[in-house]
Amino acid sequence: MAGLEDHDDAARLAYLAEGNARQARKRVAVDVLIRDDNERVLLVNPSYKDYWDLPGGMAESNESPTVAAKRELQEELGIGLAVGRLLLLDWVGPHGPWDDQLLFIFDGGTLTPGEVENIRILDDELTEFVFVKVDDCERLLRPDIWRLLQSSYRCLGSERTEYFETTRP
Asked: Which candidate, 91, 83, 85, places its Cα nearest to that of 152?
């Protein structure tokens, strides 16, 4: 009887694995809203984009969004911090060559002056970083990212998490 149960379990797992392989996959992007003690926001200048962005990146296969955020901060800027609560989730519709994705924006807290001094660009995906007053970020960010930054920043003072669905032409 035990052999029959093992066969049934193996057949069931094979059936589930086949279904898993056919299901849609989503790309997952993570950004982190980090401030300094003057309430300025950390922005990075990616070498592969025409605009500034929040620090973060893409989650790897089977990597949680918070682990991806921690990894990206460490790999790109040498920042080791505990990623805080989710401030915003944005479903970004398909555009250009890209399928849709989920963008998570987490609270990265406020860095001490010593932590700010220790930030270093460690990855050639970034050319520079800067701390900017929130109202001055608009001139550096793409309009949809500016909107998401404003919403994320407003969520800092509440227990709310915002949800958006962004479509791009």
From this structure: 85
Question: Are 128 and 45 a contacting pair, CB within 8 Å?
Answer: yes
d(CA 69, CA 93): 21
- Calpha distance 143→148 (Å, rounded): 9
Per residue in 90-140, pLDDT tens?
A: 999 998 888 999 999 999 999 999 999 999 999 999 999 999 999 999 999
Task: Residue 114: give its domain's CATH number.
Answer: 3.90.79.10
Q: Specify the residue for token string 């509440």.
A: 158
How many domains is the chain partitioned into structurally?
1
* Residue 5 belongs to a domain: no
State the pTM of this model.
Answer: 0.89
Domain of residue 123, residue span: 25-166
12 C-beta neighbours (distance < 10 Å), count: 10
| Residue 20 is assigned to a structural domain of this protein | no
